[in-house]
Design a protein that fits this description.
alpha/beta; eight-stranded parallel sheet
C-alpha cells in the first residue's frame, strides 16, 4: 500500500499477514482497507485495531517514514542469517550459502527421528567454518526429554547460538525451567508471535531471546518502545514480505541497535 500526503509526498508500506502464526487473514486486511476507502487520516491509522497487526505495521511504517525528524537509519550493515533446508540437505547447500557471505544459519529440527537428526547435526557442525553460528529451530515440536537432549548436545558446541522454540507455546513454564538448567540460550518464536503475546510472555517471566516478526507485531513505534523499555534480547525475523516490508523491518532493527543476525535470509527459497 502507498500513502500520499497533502504535499504530494508518498511512502510505501507492506501488509503481509500470516494468519496461522497469529495475524489477521489477507481477506480481513483487504476488507478493512476497502472499508477505509481511498482516504485515511493519521487518527484512523493510530486507531487500527489490534486484531489487524499486519495492517498496523504496514500503515504504521509508511506513516513513520514521513517524519524527517526520525532520520531513519541505513540497514546495510546488519548481518542476515540464512535458512537451511531440514535434514541432510542442509549439508549439501551449505557451501553455496557460505560463498554468498552468510555467517549465521538456521536449521529446522524435530522433523526426523532425534537420533537421525543428531547424527546429521554432528556432520553439519563439522562442516561449519570457525566463527560461523548455527541456530536450531524446533518450531515447538519437541517434548521435554528431546529438548533436554538437544540442549545438552548444543551446550557442548560453541557454534550453536541458541535453540528456538523447543517446546509448544503453551509450555512456557517448562521452557523457563529448561532455560535455567542449561547454558545454551533458548529463543521463543511462536510464543511471541504478536504484540499481545510478547507482552504476556514477558509478564510471565521470560528473560531469554525473543524472535519477533515485526511485520505482524503491530505498530512499529509501540514495539520499539517495549523492546527498549525492557531491554529485550531480540532477533527480527521475516514474514516472507517483499523488499518494502523487509526494508521497514530492518530500518527498525537499525534504530534499535539490534546486534543479533536478522532472520531475513529467505531469498533463496523463492524462484526468480
Amino acid at each position: 500500500m502507498q500513502l500520499t500526503d497533502e504535499r504530494g509526498r508518498s511512502q510505501s508500506g507492506e501488509i503481509a499477514p500470516i494468519p496461522w502464526f497469529g495475524s489477521e487473514s489477507l481477506e480481513s486486511a483487504i476488507e478493512w482497507c476497502q472499508h477505509i476507502g481511498d482516504t485515511i487520516t493519521t487518527s484512523q491509522i493510530y486507531g487500527i485495531p489490534d486484531r489487524l497487526p499486519a495492517c498496523q505495521f504496514g500503515f504504521g511504517s509508511a506513516l513513520t517514514a514521513f517524519n524527517p525528524a526520525l532520520d531513519l537509519p541505513c540497514h546495510t550493515n546488519l548481518d542476515i542469517s540464512a535458512l537451511l533446508p531440514s535434514g541432510a540437505a542442509a549439508i549439501d547447500c551449505l557451501p553455496a550459502l557460505l560463498s554468498q557471505g552468510y555467517a549465521t544459519f538456521k536449521w529446522k529440527i524435530g522433523v526426523l527421528p532425534i537420533a537421525q537428526e543428531l547424527a546429521i547435526w554432528a556432520q553439519l557442525t563439522m562442516a561449519l567454518p570457525p566463527g560461523v553460528k548455527l541456530r536450531l529451530d524446533a518450531n515447538g515440536g519437541l517434548n521435554y526429554a528431546q529438548a533436554e537432549q538437544w540442549l545438552s548436545a548444543g551446550s557442548c558446541q560453541p557454534q550453536i547460538e541458541f535453540i528456538e522454540q523447543p517446546l509448544a507455546p503453551n509450555l512456557l513454564a517448562e521452557t523457563i525451567d529448561l532455560a535455567q538448567k542449561y547454558p545454551l540460550p533458548i529463543a521463543l518464536d511462536e510464543s511471541v508471535a504478536t504484540f499481545d503475546r510478547i507482552q504476556a510472555t514477558y509478564a510471565s517471566g521470560w528473560r531469554g531471546i525473543y524472535v519477533i516478526k515485526p511485520g505482524i507485531a503491530g505498530f512499529p513505534w509501540r514495539l520499539a518502545e517495549f523492546i527498549q523499555r525492557h531491554q529485550l534480547d531480540v532477533v527480527f525475523s521475516s514474514v516472507l514480505e517483499t523488499n518494502v516490508g523487509k526494508t521497514a523491518a530492518l530500518q527498525l532493527a537499525s534504530s534499535l541497535n539490534l546486534t543479533r543476525s536478522m532472520g531475513f535470509g529467505v531469498d533463496d527459497w523463492f524462484e526468480e
